[in-house]
Amino acid sequence: xxxxxxxxxxAALSLFVTDAWAAKKQAKASSSKQATAGAKQKGxxxxxxxxxxxxxxxxxxxxxxxxKTNARPERPRxxxxxxxxxxxxxxxxxxxVIERPPQGTTASKLPPVRAPEPPSEWRTFEITTxxxxxxxxxxxxxxxxxxxxxxxxxxxxxxxxxIGNPANASMRRLPDGDLEVFFCEWPDSSDARLQLxxxxxxxxxxxxxxxxxxxxxxxxxxxxxxxxxxxIPNDGLAFQLGERILGRIxxxxxxxxxxxxxxxxxxxxxxxxxxxxxxxxxxxxIQGQYGGRSADINGxxxxxxxxxxxxxxxxxxxxxxxxxxxxxxxxxxxxATRGQHVRAEFYVPGYGWIPVDPSDVRRAIxxxxxxxxxxxxxxxxxxxxGVWEMNWIAFNLGTDIVLPGKNxxxxxxxxxxxxxxxxxxxxxxxxxxxxxxxxxxxxx
Length: 444
Prior knowledge:
It is a single chain. The chain is an alpha+beta fold and 444 residues long. The chain is built from eight helices and 19 strands. The strands form six sheets. It has a five-stranded antiparallel beta sheet with strand order 4-5-2-17-18, with no helix packed on it. A four-stranded antiparallel beta sheet has the order 3-6-1-19, with no helix packed on it. It has a four-stranded antiparallel beta sheet with strand order 12-11-10-14. A hairpin with a 3-residue loop joins strand 11 and strand 12 (352-356). Helix 3 (237-246) crosses helix 6 (294-307), helix 4 (252-266) runs antiparallel to helix 6 (294-307) and helix 4 runs parallel beside helix 7. The longest helix is centred in the N-terminal third of the chain and has 67 residues, at 3-69. Mean pLDDT is 81; it is low at 42-53 and 64-69.
């Protein structure tokens, strides 16, 4: 082929290839425009399916990629949380209990607390203490125990009045508030006279196990009622006895009930002892002979409770009226000179202080000549765990007491205390001065 013919054919071929490439490019552009217009016409109807298809294709690609590269698949994003305001907690004066406290507040961590309902039936007693001293002493001091100085749901002191000839007279209260006394003194006691009259109103006390809504007690008071005193230990033999009584019992109310039952079944009431007994629980534990009078039997209950970690205390007081339960558990006349009686109570969170009196169960057995299987005794045993019949007034909670104007301590105070010429007497001793206590129920 000649050179001129070769160049002519090469130019014609290049023109043909250029025209074909331009036609192909134009066809591609037109197809893409048609696809875009179709997608726009489908709109929202095809948007969901296309997105799902896109997500599926992406997940498929990512799974293929993960298989190839061992990479973890992407985690799904969490849904957006929408915070809505809580409904306001509504409380009224008629419903003071916070049943639904706001979340995150300290009130949400506390059990519901309801103000206890006051009793509806009250009885008022007038107690008159008369002191007549006929001695040649130059100076005489006298201390008389007074009823509780703080109002409770079972007792309220309405007031005191006195007449007599002491040189000085005043009411004194210990710093811890557990005891209040009437203190007076005479420079010459050859004809010393005093008459103290107190008005006290009382209501029967009941423990309701279905209501656990009592506000918590102060920690210092609970610690004080776990400690030992001169006559009431809280370790050693008391702890060993408590462990033997309880076994595997864990509930504190059931533990106190087991101790109460054991004290009732294993103690003896001795009416020949003076006063309320000496309250020496330590001696009972050492000798292994349990019993005495109310200070001894109820003191034993308190000692065992404290030993196992249940706060407990003796309440020192006096009978003021007849009993609806048994004749021997109340006064038969208006003479209360020898009516002193000690009761006990223990503390459980939510329930507060729970009243008990194992001593009066033993007293009824001794004074009423009841057998251990008598139905009346079984009922009385159930009643006196959680119930106080308030024909009795509480004087004080004090133990190891140092009286105003004195340096030495006494284990507890129920009887009048007298000091003259350096000698000290109490109302239960044979050398005590003449005194009397009269009570009567009054209507205000």
